[in-house]
Amino acid sequence: MGRIVINLDVVMAQRKIALKDLADAIGITNANLSILKTGKAKAIRFSTLEKLCEILECQPGDIIAYEEDEQ
Q: In the beta sheet, which residues pair with residue 4?
């Protein structure tokens, strides 16, 4: 069984954008963005994903990936 991996921290580093600045730009709290960034979120709204992609100028697949578990 695989898992969903969040690569938001990588994309943020590539774009040189701080958590607070990104949270302000997409209209969510620093705490909620931090939960998403660390992969602890159980869900993400498509509207939030759209805003992330717009601000970070990326595709959803740049932020979210599926990885197979090693066996």
A: 66
32: Cβ contacts below 8 Å, ≥ 6 apart: 23, 41
Residues 30, 17: Cα–Cα separation, whole Å = 13
* Whether 64 contacts 3, CB under 8 Å: no
Task: Select from 3.40.50.2300, 3.40.47.10, 1.10.260.40, 3.30.470.30 the CATH code of 3-67.
Answer: 1.10.260.40
For the segment 3-41, what is each residue's pLDDT rounded down to a tens digit? 999 999 999 999 999 999 999 999 999 999 999 999 999
The pLDDT score that the predictor gives to residue 24 is 97
